[in-house]
Design a protein that fits this description.
By secondary structure, the protein is an all-beta fold. The chain is built from no helices and 10 strands. The radius of gyration is 13 Å and the shape is globular.
Length: 123
Amino acid sequence: QLEFVESGGGLVQPGGSLRLSCAASGFLLNYYAIGWFRQAPGKEREFVAAITWSGRSTRNADSVKGRFGISKNNAKNTVYLQMNNLKPEDTAVYYCNRGTWATMADLRTYDYWGQGTQVTVSS
C-alpha cells in the first residue's frame, strides 16, 4: 500500500533552516521520481522540488531556487528537503509524492497525498 509520511516541520524564524523528511512505503524510491509540494492557507498546492529516480538530477521551483535542496537515501527509502534562508511566504503544509519526471509539477497526476508536515516561518 502506497504511503508517505512527512516529518520535520515546525516553527522557525525568518532566515532559519529546517530539514523535512519523507518516508515512503509500498514502493521503492529507486524506481520513481519524487517531488515535494506545498500548500499555503487559502492557496492551491504547488510544486516545490523534485529528484529523479537515480538522484542524479533535481529541479526547484523559481521561488525556492538557491535556498532549498532535495536529496534522497534509497537505502532508507526516504527523501529530504533541506530548506535554508526561510521566508514567511514559505509557510505551508509540505507534502511529498512520486511521479514521472516529465509531469512532476502537474498536480492533476496525483490522486493520493499523505498528511504533510506544517512549516511556519514567523518571528
